[in-house]
Write a structure and sequence with these properties.
Helix content: 40-55%
Strand content: 5-15%
Largest sheet: 7 strands, parallel
Strand order of the largest sheet: 1-5-7-8-9-10-11
Distance between the termini: 72 Å
Structural class: alpha/beta
Oligomer: single chain
Length: 778
């Protein structure tokens, strides 16, 4: 080390929810996008939100001047922030740069969302979470240069307010490991090849942060825990050794904390970081074990991530304390208590949930409660275990109470799962099903459909809110929803779609709607968690054994079917996605819980069939999302996740066409598992990635119906007929024509009606053109 560095605090968190307790950032950003406010107003709103966050964290016990408060704000996405900061935007966005090469808000948001002819960056899941990040595009031609001073400005802003914060930046290895090659790059190019070119820009950024008042900087390197990335873990570890050897020797920088959450560091990466000339390493002890002692730790602070940043359970605080004690024997100079990951994955505060059962609430810890847990553990590290005996005992008592509470274990549910036989997972021969479905449905070649939801308009949200407040009676609300469904059905018939949906106007969320109608779940009022950009969800809390007390979707589906002669889909959310997008009990294997959900859905499918619904979609967009980061754990996960879908759907009759949908994931990793779901038709994201997955499908021998998306619904752009036609031409050139479906990438809930109608009209027109072109081959 070239100069003494600041001492690291005894307790910290790796990040905090950034959307605001009442989604203030969402409203500010979307107002800017709509043109109703200007950039100055947006910046002021964001600054106010950051100030409120710092004050709240100080109130909870983190220090104002010791770098324990992370500065983890983002307008859209932390990966995008890092890419923009180092100038890594594709050439198509070059005209949006400032004259000095800087990248401002308009360029930042255009790259994220797209505009006009400018297609946005691809989006995919952040490791094994439901958070979506924007995929950087980096090639040999990418020119790295410090292109934004936003990180430094936020450090200086905090300094003015009396805070010494720790800026959080995605590290150079993870930025490159998560990037994709630009279209101009040769086929063998790997963005990691640009590491040596990128490091001087990170060094310049560190100098700028130090000048702004940062004493510590947090560089997030979760790529170093993953075995699911294209790069081998040993290659990533070598890249980390090179990166931090270069950055660590600089004297004009803050002290460096490298944080590697979401799983256990690879042995090679752990050794590389321990040996690197940096001051601290944060490791995940919620999803990883205490590692072996390695050389170099005597000069390091180890931040033990013993408070789980990804679930909402109060947890075993005494066990967390014991893990910190185990960490202390490795020989590090200091031990600090921390969260396993950023707290961006959990809601703000249990105290905001006045409608939750108090007993259930006593088992929970949202972000603010987890901060308090970290502060308590930090106190214990300084003053000894007796100083925190009370919070340790209280957490242990909550665990005991939870285990004995009614509903956590339901004898009837458990007897049903024990009685299952191998036949309950098997549906029968696919070719037999195809013949029965062709006879039943009589669909044209390249059948068109949508994924399920239609725009959730302001009128729908207001009616739902009025009904919730008792201002709209049950009968009045039902009439409103029936009118909305009828409008959506008529619209689809006018556009010319072949298989229709009812639009899901009655659903607030594709998981919460089912959680509200299943035993074993609770829902929140303000438990918002960012999904991507300005979008947030309210994950439900799955706390007990799951059962279906009554049919959930049947009445709405049968009403919609009564309005048309075209097939109407019954729309369900699959067991894996219900688990992935909920906070799930941690007291039994996930596979056991998935089977309970699957049996509830199996009953719903049976009731839909009895009501005359012949197309049923069971969405599983989260199948790839939950894939464990460690290769040794993946086979077991795929076995239970695929099994739960098959358990839910295997009871369907051969003539019932079962669809599923997956979105925004790396499909090549799980293509065999997708095939093993044994759905009759699978729709998947393909438009934003410009059809990359089509080749993977073709070479895999995928034999059932497939609908690669041709309309990116996560962008406000309206795809042209030509754009959709090009994607369809590529699809039918590589895949069996009679298996291809035409659909958007995902549901249309977040879009407006003008763009939706225009896009679907273009989709149908493009399909017609391709049908004419391929007619001679039929």
């Amino acid at each position: 080390m070239t100069e003494p560095r600041a001492t690291f605090p005894h307790g910290t968190i790796l990040g905090y929810p950034r959307i605001g307790r009442r989604r203030e950032l969402k409203r500010a950003v979307e107002a800017y996008w709509s043109g109703t406010t200007d950039a100055e107003t947006l910046e002021q709103s964001a600054a106010g939100l950051r100030r409120a966050t710092r004050e709240r964290l100080a109130e909870l016990g983190l220090g104002r001047d010791d770098s324990s408060i992370p500065e983890s704000f983002s307008f859209y996405d932390q990966v995008h922030d890092a890419a923009v900061t180092v100038g890594a935007l594709p050439e198509r966005f070059a005209p949006l740069r400032a004259a000095d090469g800087g990248i401002g808000l308009d360029a930042y948001f255009t790259a994220a969302r797209g505009a006009g002819e400018d297609a946005p960056l691809e989006m995919t899941k952040w490791f094994d979470t439901n958070y979506h990040y924007l995929v950087p595009e980096i090639g040999p031609e990418t020119v790295f240069a410090l292109s934004s001073d936003r990180f430094a400005r936020q450090v200086a802003e905090a300094k003015v307010d009396g805070f010494t914060v720790r800026p959080v930046v995605v590290g150079p290895v993870t930025l490159l490991a998560l990037a994709k090659a630009t279209d101009a790059a040769p086929g063998s190019f790997d963005p990691l090849q640009r590491l040596d070119d990128l490091l001087p820009v990170y060094a310049e950024l560190l100098t700028e942060l130090r000048a702004a008042g940062a004493e510590w900087v947090q560089l997030d390197e979760p790529a170093l825990v993953s075995e699911s990335l294209p790069a081998d873990p040993a290659v990533l570890a070598d890249a980390a050794a090179r990166a931090y050897a270069a950055l660590g020797v600089r004297g004009d920088r803050p002290a460096i904390l490298v944080a590697a959450g979401y799983a256990q560091l690879s042995p090679e990466a752990w050794a590389a970081l321990a040996a690197a000339p940096i001051e601290a390493v944060a490791i995940d002890l919620a999803r990883g074990a205490v590692p072996q002692a390695v050389p170099g730790l005597a000069r390091k602070t180890l931040v033990g991530g013993v408070v789980d940043g990804r679930n909402v359970w109060r947890g075993d605080l005494d066990a967390a304390w014991k893990r910190l004690q185990e960490l202390s024997v490795l020989g590090a100079s200091e031990i600090s208590a921390g969260t396993s990951t950023s707290l961006q994955h959990v809601p703000h505060d249990v105290a905001d949930e006045s409608a939750l059962d108090p007993r259930l609430a006593s088992w929970l810890a949202f972000a603010d409660q987890k901060v308090a847990q970290v502060v308590a553990l930090a106190t214990g590290l300084v003053d000894g275990r007796p100083a925190i005996a009370e919070p340790l005992a209280a957490a242990s008592a909550a665990l005991v109470d939870r285990q004995s509470a009614p509903g956590v274990r339901d004898g009837a549910v458990r007897e049903r799962t024990v009685a299952l036989s191998a036949d309950d997972w098997e549906r029968g021969d696919y070719e037999v099903r195809v013949a029965a479905q062709d006879a039943e449905l009589a669909l044209p070649v390249l059948p068109t459909t949508t994924i399920g939801s239609f725009p959730q308009t302001g009128d729908i949200r207001r009616a739902r809110a009025r009904h919730g407040r008792g201002e709209l009676s049950a009968d009045e609300y039902e009439r409103f929803l029936r009118d909305e469904i009828a409008r959506v059905v008529t619209l689809q018939e006018d556009i010319g779609l072949d298989v229709l949906v009812h639009g899901e106007a009655e659903r607030n969320d594709m998981v919460q709607y089912f959680a509200e109608n299943l035993d074993g779940f609770a829902v929140t009022e303000n438990g918002w968690v960012q999904s991507y950009g300005s979008r947030a969800t309210r994950p439900s809390i799955l706390w007990g054994d799951v059962a279906r007390p009554a049919p959930i979707t049947v009445a709405w589906s049968t009403f919609a079917q009564s309005l048309t002669d075209k097939p109407m889909k019954g729309m369900l959310t699959g067991p894996v996605t219900i688990l992935a997008w909920s906070f799930v009990r941690d007291d039994q294997p996930l596979g056991d819980t998935a089977n309970q959900v699957a049996l509830a859905l199996r009953d719903e499918i049976a009731d839909l069939e009895r009501a005359g619904i012949r197309v049923i979609q069971v969405d599983e967009p989260a199948l790839r999302e939950l894939l464990p980061l460690k290769a040794a754990d993946q086979a077991a996960y795929l076995e239970w996740s695929v099994g739960s879908f098959r358990l839910a759907t295997a009871g369907a009759a051969p003539a019932t066409q079962v669809h599923t949908h997956l979105c925004y994931s790396e499909f090549d990793v799980v293509i065999d598992a997708i095939a093993a779901l044994d759905a009759d038709v699978t729709s998947i994201e393909a438009a934003r990635s410009r059809g990359e997955v089509i080749g993977d499908i073709a070479t895999s021998g995928f034999a059932t119906g497939i609908g690669p998306g041709v309309y990116d619904i996560h962008s406000p752009r309206v795809p042209s007929v030509e754009e959709i036609t090009d994607l369809l031409d590529r699809t039918v050139a590589e895949l069996p024509l009679r298996r291809v479906w035409v659909n958007p990438d995902c549901g249309l809930k977040t879009r407006g009606y003008d763009e939706t109608v225009a896009s679907l009209t273009n989709l149908v027109e493009a399909t017609g053109l391709v049908r004419e072109r391929v007619a001679v081959t039929l």
